[in-house]
Amino acid sequence: MNETKNSGSAGRLRALAENLTRVFTNQGCTIKHELGEVTIEIPTEHLIDVATRLRDEPDFRFEQLTDACGVDYSEYGRSEWTTGEASFTGFGRGVESAADSEPENDRRFAVVYHLLSISHNMRLRMRVFVDSAQPIVESVTPIWKSAEWYEREAFDLFGILFGGHQDLRRILTDYGFVGHPFRKDFPLEGHVEMRYDNEKSRVVYEPVSIEPRTLVPKVIRSDNRYLGDANQQQDPADA
Amino acid sequence: MPEIRNYTLNFGPQHPAAHGVLRLVLEMDGEVIERADPHIGLLHRATEKLAESKPYNHSIPYMDRFDYVSMMCNEHGYVMAIEKLLGVKVPERALYIRTMYDEITRLLNHLMWLGTHALDVGAMTMFLYTFREREDLLDCYEAVSGARMHAAYYRVGGVYRDLPDEMPKYENNKFRSDAEIARKNEVRQGSLLDFIDDFTSRFPALVDEYETLLTDNRIWKQRTVGIGVVSPERALQMGFSGAMLRGSGIAWDLRKKQPYAAYRAMDFDIPIGRNGDCYDRYLVRIEEMRQSNRIIQQCVDWLRKNPGPVIVSDHKVAPPNRVDMKEGMEGLIHHFKLFTEGYCTPPGEVYSAVEAPKGEFGCYIISDGANKPYRLKVRAPGFAHLAAMNEMVNGHMLADVVAVIGTMDIVFGEVDR
């Protein structure tokens, strides 16, 4: 970390974390304070209530919603690069596609909001997990107007619905696009490609012709430099 | 009585004043806007999804292409987020180089904004003036990274290399006389720092030149005063940042309030506006250019006096030098691992924001302990600003839409991502 956080801002964040714990724990919220950032996880049903209080109460005063985005946690912590058996020809390693796995659970989709308090000069992250079968959450647009486009984006890219949003249309993808491209089960190459057809003299859509391939596999190393001393030994196969 | 009806007017995406690929659907009552509906996404490249499939370092050049007129500031936001995640401590000289280049970038961006904004509103000459200075600043980019725009100069743990001792020079050619080439090369005889020093001594007078053309210009004032007024409360509600927020009178600047890089050691002021209209935002940005110039001067002074490393020596995140790589086993392994697999970050999530020329540029990274980000979300200032389009142009005339697009300083690379 290059910015030397003065004790003032660190102290403010600690006080914020304590305040949040005191006020919101009975509503089922959990508060984390890591890497100099405070995160509050809110149960879906209390989102509007908690968010309104975060904006209005003098201890918090988060006047601005700087960012909101969807997250798809379905492949979280899953490595594509697993070590199989070692033989005299080498390691049996290969890239495994994650498409065949079953990610469905209650904690697949989340919406993450980033708040900024100008008056107290501090930031807060709110996270709400959304039911993956029916991903719907109340819209925070009545509280922060800037959420309008961020929620449209989360709807477009992840298919998360926002109840009470006035204008929930697609925003970034093409007119008539099918699917939600930032979900982990949506291939990077997409499903269709388009080109200009000379005979039909119009643009045509066709199934993609490029093969999916992984250039650099995703590897997870349990690096004991980061995990503290007591936590974990480094996996000998990865050494 | 003739029947009166409202028009729906399509503005863009190929309109020259739309600053790229903005499509606006305007509902008009005569010449007055009743509703503006921006259609964006025509430049959507899914950069955030691409970043999920690549090791961290491979995405640094993508950052340049978000807001493609303030390249290095975007890189700064991204590498800062990774550094925070890894807990890397950046050498001080690298911090000063970053600060200096952030401010050079701010000048580049504001010059581009000033030229195009004035051009949209009808002042042709500004464009020629500002692009003259942009040329010099792009030379600074070129000297340090080899590229005039998409530099990829900031790396995790520092910057790619130290400032060069020599400026690239013009070569004699048949299109210009040798005397003219010699005149152009005159300021390029010394090191990069000499060149920047010379630029900063010239620049304030040049800003005065811009101001003589615009600040008291009757037409300029008619087109901008009282146009697109935003109250401080609304500016906060709509998620404004940067000059859009300061133009409405809120003294909020991340360089002062949440200092990063070497901004804590810098002496500069934050200009704010009073009325929150296009003219105030123009004045704010003009003053920001003068302040940036001051910061660059301070950085040049510091950098002259303090040599040192510009990137961390931890070869898990930064490559070893070529000699070590060619001659040492350790260096070879580090090099190989870094360029094939990259580095793994500890699991966790960070949000780190910089004061980019257009406003708060933030990177939100979720890591699951892998060598690629699990999710990268870029918070682009232009996205929030453009979302307020409807509110800002409502009740204004069609011609004012162009002034409002100009004042927002929209670049579609970052809005569409």
Tell me roughly what share of residues is in helical segments of chain A. 10-25%
> Mean pLDDT of chain A, as a whole number?
80
- Tally of strands of chain B: 8
Q: What is the count of DSSP helices of chain A, taking H or I runs of 4+ residues?
A: 3
Please give the alpha-carbon distance between the first and last residues of chain A: 27 Å
Estimate percent helicity of chain B.
40-55%
Q: Between the first and last Cα atoms of chain B, what is the distance in angstroms?
A: 49 Å
**Multimeric status of the protein:** heterodimer
Under the CATH scheme, the architecture of chain A is 2-Layer Sandwich
Q: How many β-strand stretches of chain A?
A: 11
Order of helices and strands of chain A: HEEHEEEEEEHEEE
Q: Can you write the helix and strand succession of chain B as a string?
A: EEEHHHHHEEHHHHHHHHHEEEHHHH
Rounded to an integer in angstroms, the radius of gyration calculated over CA atoms of chain B is: 23 Å
**Overall CATH class of chain A:** Alpha Beta
Strand content of chain A: 25-35%
Secondary structure category of chain B? mainly alpha
Structure, explained:
Chain A is α+β, with helices and mostly antiparallel strands. Chain A has one domain (2-177): Beta Polymerase, domain 2. Helix content of chain A is 17%, strand content 28%. Chain A is built from three helices and eleven strands; from the N terminus they run H-E-E-H-E-E-E-E-E-E-H-E-E-E. Chain B has 417 residues and is mainly alpha-helical. Helix content of chain B is 49%, strand content 11%. Chain B has helices at residues 47-52, 60-64, 71-86, 92-121, 124-145, 178-185, 192-214, 218-224, 232-237, 243-246, 254-257, 278-305, 322-327, 329-340, 381-387, 389-393, 398-408, 412-416; strands spanning 7-11, 23-29, 32-39, 154-155, 158-159, 348-356, 359-367, 375-379. In chain B, helix 7 (192-214) packs antiparallel against helix 12 (278-305). Chains A and B meet through strand 3 and helix 3 of A and helix 1, helix 3, helix 9, strand 6 and strand 7 of B.
